[in-house]
Amino acid sequence: MSTEILVYVLTPLAAVVVVLTRLRLARGDATAGHSQISSRLLLLHTVAGSAALVLWVVFLAFPEDSFLGGSVIGIVALGFFWVTAIAGLLILMRWLPTRGKHAGDKATDSWSKGPGLSVLAHVGMLVGVVVFTFAYLTSAV
Fold it and tell me: Is the distance from CB of 31 to CB of 107 less than 8 angstroms?
């Protein structure tokens, strides 16, 4: 499969990860995992992910000789994608085991049993960002 096609397939999947993370963790009382996450971290993930997706789609849609399809937009979009991936991995850390006298029981997860969906989404986002960066650096997109 060519790198360009892979980028076009992974772009909407990145949107799914950002939207589902927001929907899944928006309510503080229904948080999956061992502990609640910071609302600021969730906001950072959502804002950076949204900005990354908008800029990335603009970068892909416009010709490379225009400003909107130029290298500056691509680099800024990749920067936002890296922020999103790092924030997503920090969100994923809530599944780390907790020990101690005051550690609570693991919360139940209504979307899946355990952290599988979150691991798939956020590790997948990291792989996607690596692919996007590789495609940009090799001028595949």
Answer: yes
Query: For 41-62, what is the mean pLDDT?
Result: 92
Instruction: Give the whole-angstrom CA distance, residue 141 versus residue 133.
Output: 10
Exposure b/e, 104-129, CB count within 10 A at least 16 = b = eeeeebeeeeebeebeebbebbbebb
| % of the chain exceeding 70 in pLDDT | 76
pLDDT for 20-47, tens place per residue?
877 777 655 444 444 567 788 888 988 9
Q: How many domains does the chain have?
A: 1
Q: How far apart are CA 51 and CA 77, in angstroms?
A: 7
Confidence category of residue 58, pLDDT binned at 50, 70, 90:
very high
Residue 88: which domain range? 3-27+35-98+105-137
pTM exceeds 0.85, yes or no? no
